[in-house]
């Protein structure tokens, strides 16, 4: 027998629960299905645990630098990983539990535990129960990609999920992948006391950033004693006397790195392979991402895909924005589209990188006339006062419309400061509006108008 609902939501990540609330408030009978932990990746194995641990790593780093500020710590600074983990577990568990109780107490909403699988375009099986609905919303997220490299089955490896459970300081962590996950974990464990080697096959770290930004990130990490291997493709794994080896295809440096622990941070894979999509006729691309239009509709009428699994974003804020788009179009008679949003994200190394819009390189390639402004963080008094002068800020402007095309703020507070630029971009205001705004002293943001007053032709 099929249990009928007005809407089925698969996954309780960053879009599903908020959508369940809006649909149920609109009087719909909603079923939401989760097979692992409530809250999905961000809450359990992504943003929340990593940023909690990044905060511990920052405390360790600052304690080691205490002398720079005239603060005396008698004795050595050391890290108790059991306590770091306990703090992280408490914050994560509270967050996951609050998503669960929110959903379980939601009027008109029924929670199902188990793995959902389509039986047809409008029916989904969870265990022994078959659910039917005219509308289904897929919010199944992604998982770490495990590359099928020779020797992978011979070595103990970790991913973003399993490395979070470690309660000791690894002696030497090898990180394959020099992007978000590799860099955030790499710096964090270096600050906990590990030796860290980051292996990246591209010629630079976080390769889609501008060259000077990538170079500044490399400087920050090398300054802390992290070994960085660029142009080095990991091609195999092995074991040597209780240690793990990573074989590299590289023109420079040793062709093998040996360490005590291994983190695979080589990208993600959508959780669409076991969803029974063929039974429903729902299309995916060659990487398994659900194919959607600008309103997040799949090719099957009545089926939407939200969050990381649609390949249109890979962040919590893009998944949440997907919820807002679907809810607005379905319930508020609005017309919102994915293409209306401006790319924005942060990289949570310390100091963080805040990014909005196009890179300078993308603007250059587009051929449009543009202006550029840059300022090193050494010329920002707030950074000088805090003793955190690494990094730079950079902005690029369309020289015809005078609107901001993009910006990078790599420096203390960069993840927050970027928002004044982002909001000016959404307002489609000329840069002069931001240039003339009176900002508060002493802040990093107060130097944005100054930087905008010193623009040069790109
Ligand atoms: C280490 C790490 C750090 C990150 N840090 C940040 C950050 O600082 N800022 C940021 O913006 N983003 C960050 N991200 C990315 C962010 O976590 C994701 O973009 C976000 O969680 C995506 O949300 P989602 O709703 O699409 O999917 P998810 O949060 O992955 O949720 C999907 C849910 O669906 C469930 N599910 C899957 N298949 C089924 C099924 N068949 N049946 C039932 N349930 C199913 C899963 O169990 C999961 O709970 C990070 C990611 C990682 C890995
Ligand atoms: N701050 C944040 O918002 C944040 C933090 C963590 C993760 N995330 C999300 O998680 C996703 C995954 O992050 P990620 O860092 O795992 O993946 P990624 O796709 O961003 O980067 C993977 C990196 O691994 C490299 N690589 C792949 N195979 C390799 C090999 N064999 N040898 C050497 N290098 C190799 C690639 O060149 C690339 O630089 C990102 O898309 C991001 O959106 C976001």
Structure in words:
There is one protein chain. The protein has 458 residues and is α/β, with parallel strands linked by helices. Helices cover 32% and strands 26% of the residues. It has helices at 16-25, 40-44, 47-64, 81-104, 160-163, 180-192, 211-223, 277-280, 316-331, 360-366, 381-386, 414-426, 431-436, 447-452; strands at 2-10, 30-34, 109-113, 116-120, 123-126, 129-138, 142-144, 172-176, 195-199, 227-229, 232-240, 243-250, 256-259, 261-264, 268-270, 303-305, 344-347, 353-357, 370-376, 392-398, 404-410, 456-457. Strands 1, 2, 3, 4, 5, 6 and 16 form a 7-stranded mixed β-sheet that branches. A 6-stranded antiparallel β-sheet has the order 17-18-21-20-19-22, sandwiched between helices. A 4-stranded parallel β-sheet has the order 10-9-8-14, with helices on one face. A hairpin with a 2-residue loop joins strand 4 (116-120) and strand 5 (123-126). Helix 1 packs parallel to helix 9 and helix 3 packs antiparallel against helix 4 (81-104). The model has no long low-confidence stretch (mean pLDDT 98). Nicotinamide-adenine-dinucleotide is lined by residues 147, 176-182, 184, 199-202, 207, 233-234, 265-268, 314-315, 345-348. The site of nicotinamide-adenine-dinucleotide (NAD) has 26 residues, from helix 6, strand 11 and strand 17. Its cofactor is FAD. Keywords: FAD, Flavoprotein, NAD, Nucleotide-binding.
């Amino acid at each position: 027998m099929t249990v009928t609902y007005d809407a089925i939501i698969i996954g309780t990540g960053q879009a599903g629960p908020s959508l369940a609330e809006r649909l149920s408030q609109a009087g719909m009978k909603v079923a939401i299905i989760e097979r692992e932990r409530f809250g999905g990746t961000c809450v359990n194995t992504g943003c929340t645990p990593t940023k909690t641990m990044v905060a511990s790593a920052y405390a360790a780093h600052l304690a080691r630098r205490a002398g720079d500020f005239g603060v005396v710590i008698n004795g050595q600074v050391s890290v108790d990983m059991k306590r770091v983990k306990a703090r992280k577990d408490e914050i994560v568990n509270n967050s996951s539990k609050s998503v669960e109780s929110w959903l379980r107490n939601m009027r008109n909403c029924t929670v199902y535990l188990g793995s959902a699988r389509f039986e047809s375009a409008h029916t989904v099986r969870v265990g022994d129960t078959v659910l039917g609905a005219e509308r289904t919303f897929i919010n199944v997220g992604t998982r770490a990609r495990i590359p099928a490299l020779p020797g992978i089955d011979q070595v103990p490896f970790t991913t973003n999920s399993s490395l979070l459970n470690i309660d000791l300081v690894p002696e030497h962590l090898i990180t394959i992948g020099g992007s978000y996950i590799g860099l955030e974990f790499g710096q964090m464990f270096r600050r906990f006391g590990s030796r860290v080697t980051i292996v990246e096959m591209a010629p630079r770290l976080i390769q889609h950033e501008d060259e000077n930004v990538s170079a500044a990130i490399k400087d920050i990490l090398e300054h802390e004693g992290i070994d960085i291997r660029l142009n080095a493709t990991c091609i195999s794994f092995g074991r040597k006397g209780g240690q793990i080896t990573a074989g590299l295809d590289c023109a420079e440096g040793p062709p093998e790195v040996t360490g005590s622990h291994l983190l695979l941070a080589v990208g993600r894979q959508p959780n669409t392979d076991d969803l029974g999509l063929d039974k429903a006729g729902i299309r995916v691309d060659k990487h398994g991402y659900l194919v959607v239009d600008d309103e997040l509709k799949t090719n099957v009428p009545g089926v939407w895909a939200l969050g990381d699994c649609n390949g249109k974003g890979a962040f919590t804020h893009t998944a949440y924005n997907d919820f807002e788009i679907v809810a607005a179009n379905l319930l508020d008679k609005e017309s919102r589209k994915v293409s209306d949003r401006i790319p924005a994200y942060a990289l949570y190394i310390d100091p963080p990188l805040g990014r909005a819009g196009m890179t300078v390189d993308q603007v250059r390639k587009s051929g449009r006339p543009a202006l550029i402004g840059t300022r090193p963080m050494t010329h920002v008094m707030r950074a000088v006062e805090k003793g955190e002068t690494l990094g730079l800020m950079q902005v690029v402007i369309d020289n015809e419309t005078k609107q901001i095309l993009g910006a990078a703020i790599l420096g203390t507070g960069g993840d927050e400061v970027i928002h004044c630029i982002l909001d000016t971009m959404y307002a489609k205001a000329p840069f002069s509006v931001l240039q003339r705004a009176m900002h508060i002293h002493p802040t990093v943001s107060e130097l944005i108008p100054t930087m905008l007053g010193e623009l040069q032709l790109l």
